[in-house]
Amino acid sequence: MLSIVKDVIKVNNEHNLIHRGNRIVVAVSGGADSVALLLILLNIRSHYTLNLAIAHLDHGLRENSTKEALYIARLAKTHNLPFYVCCENLLLYGKHAIEERARNARYAFLQKCAVQFKAHSIAVAHHANDQAETILFNIIRGSSVTGLGGMPYKRKIAADSSIQIIRPLLSLQKSQIVDYLATENQQWMEDESNADTRFTRNKIRRDLIPFLQSNFSAKVVPSLNKMAIRCQEIVDFMDQEANKYYDSAVASLCEKKHLDPMIQHTLNFRVFDEKLFAKIPTQIMPFLMKRAMRCMQINTSVNEHHYKMLSKLQEQKTGEIDLSSNVTIHKKPGKIYIYKRNDSSYMSEEFYSKIRTPWGWFVVEGGKENDSFDFFAQWMDKEKIQFPLRVRSWKREDVMKPLGAPGKKKIQKILKDIKLHEPFRDHVPVVVDHNERIVWLVGVCVSHHVRITEKTTEKTVVKCLLNS
């Protein structure tokens, strides 16, 4: 077994990247790094009983991109591996922030491939030189200790996903990778855009790192990687501390706490107790905000300017600040809300038995009513329901007569009465019948006209099976 393969196995044992029987999507661009990654994983495939697939995204940014895709297709065929490929012309949207958009498109595509392949992880080919570039890039931008930690060996691709991004080559230097490919007599495709020093990362790679190696230390790459490990240890500790404050400070949306998970499926939000939030140390706040953003699947970066705005907001009784075009922090007496604004309007198709919605599955069943109580399972008199049903967002003009109420009330008033904060009210759905009459304000109250009485001969239950 070659020493480079032994090094990868050693890294895997240290960082717990690959487990026996794993299904792994390998991101292959066609360059030396990703081709070497593929060969190494093929080399250890039998050792770990791995199932591998190749994924390649053609950004449409280079002249040779079609040739690269064909080359990778041949690799997949040679090794009898499933091959996922997608073409996306990012230039259609202009050249603004092209690097960031290309990265986001790539990871979104890789996540789709991983879900389709039922993968445990996605392997990417970042190595020690890439790590050094990332750290220097972050230093130039004035990054915090998180940026000095560079790229981790593994991370979740999304907060709500079990799929991991893994970097098995992160301890290897570029020269080792090139030597390995020469030993294996393996060709690769050169990415001509890597020579374009208009991109900051390329300039760091081609100009800054060689300058530091020649004039300061030949070991600048391993030195920066050692620093990254130390910084990541600090970040891990701060994340753990932030989690303690986060869990203790999280509050409920309103008096009916059971509504929180339902609204959270269509509106990304977090609510904090104002007094507990104020006790969070300044040094912890960036890590707590990072967790909140990660949980809400928001890519907005929070910078020093935002923290100053947040500090001023905490001194006020009420107010709000915008972190980006669609992320707001809102303060009301006793509560601090962080939420991502989005379009709340929704209407399902008509259904008789079941239908899938943004909140989860809605199911209509018969049977015998039991004594167990569930906010998201409402029994009704079947003969009083005009089928088919429909699930939709409530409208400003919507009214209903809640069970036992003396008269009709506006939906808006019902939600206000349970002290549900205004930005979240739009995300409680209603179930309506064929005549557009509301039968259930989900999780809150059933309509009086479909109530079960002594005269009821047939009962039915409408359930909302929330997304997990």
From TrEMBL:
Alphabetical keyword list: ATP-binding, Cytoplasm, Ligase, Nucleotide-binding, tRNA processing
Signal peptide annotation: none
Gene3D superfamilies: HUPs
Entry's Gene Ontology BP terms: tRNA modification
Subcellular location(s) of the protein: Cytoplasm
Any single Pfam family the record assigns to this protein: TilS_C
Residue ranges annotated for the Lysidine-tRNA(Ile) synthetase C-terminal domain, each copy included: 389-462
Domain of life: Bacteria
Molecular function GO terms recorded: ATP binding; tRNA(Ile)-lysidine synthase activity
Catalytic function, reaction form: cytidine(34) in tRNA(Ile2) + L-lysine + ATP = lysidine(34) in tRNA(Ile2) + AMP + diphosphate + H(+)
Record note on domains: The N-terminal region contains the highly conserved SGGXDS motif, predicted to be a P-loop motif involved in ATP binding.
Stated family: Belongs to the tRNA(Ile)-lysidine synthase family.
Function according to Swiss-Prot or TrEMBL: Ligates lysine onto the cytidine present at position 34 of the AUA codon-specific tRNA(Ile) that contains the anticodon CAU, in an ATP-dependent manner. Cytidine is converted to lysidine, thus changing the amino acid specificity of the tRNA from methionine to isoleucine.
Protein name (database record): tRNA(Ile)-lysidine synthase
Gene symbol of the encoding locus: tilS
